[in-house]
Write a structure and sequence with these properties.
The protein is α/β, with parallel strands linked by helices. The chain has 7 helices and 7 strands; from the N terminus they run ββββαβαααβαβαα.
Amino acid sequence: MRPRPRAAGLGDPTGQQIERAVIRHAASRPEERIGTIVINPGGPGDTGLGQVREGGDELDAWGDGRYDIISWDPRGTHASSPVNCFTSEAKAAEFWEGVSIPSTPAEAEGYTQLTADLAGRCGEVMGPLLSHISTADTVRDLDRLRELAGEETITYVGLSYGTVVGQMYANLFPERVRAMLLDGIVDPVAYTTSAETRVASNAASTDEVFAQFLQLCFS
C-alpha cells in the first residue's frame, strides 16, 4: 500500500509531494492479534518491501503470529521516490568508467574529488529533495506509519542501521515507544563523527571476533 503523500519537508506542507512504498503482512492468528510490528532492515536504504515479501512468514513467527508486520522503503530509496544522480544510464556509465577502489594516497585524493563531483550531480538532478532525505526524516515517516496503523505506541524492530532509526525515534518520541528490538546496534555518535570513525567502529567487532578465532586455532 502507499500512504497518502506528504510534503517532503515540514516547513511547507503544501510543497512538493513524494510517495513512500509500504507493505503489510497480516497476522496469521488474527483472532489473537496484539498489534503491529514495524521493521526497518537497515542499510541505510535496504528495501523493507523486499524483506517482507521474501520473509513475511518468518517475520510473522517473531511475533507468534499475533502481530501485523509492516515495513517500507525509506524515502529516497527503491520504490519511495528514489534518488538518481544521473539523467541516463549512459551518463552514469561514463562517470564510473575506470573507477576502482583507491589503494594509494594519490588515488584516495582523486576519489575524494570524484565523490564531491557525484554529490554535486545528485543535487543538480534531484534538487531540493535531497534536503529532506535524512535519518530524522525517516524517523518522522516511521511515526507516520505508526499513526496510519492505528497504534498509539510503536512496536519496532531495527536491524543494523535500523538501530539508529530506533534510537533516534526513542529520543524524539519517547512517550510513543511500546517496545523495541534493536539487533546489530550501531553507535550513532561514531557513525556520524566522520567516515573514518564510522568504518573503524563498524570493523571493531569483526576484528574482535577474528582475534578470538585465531586464539581458538592456536590454543
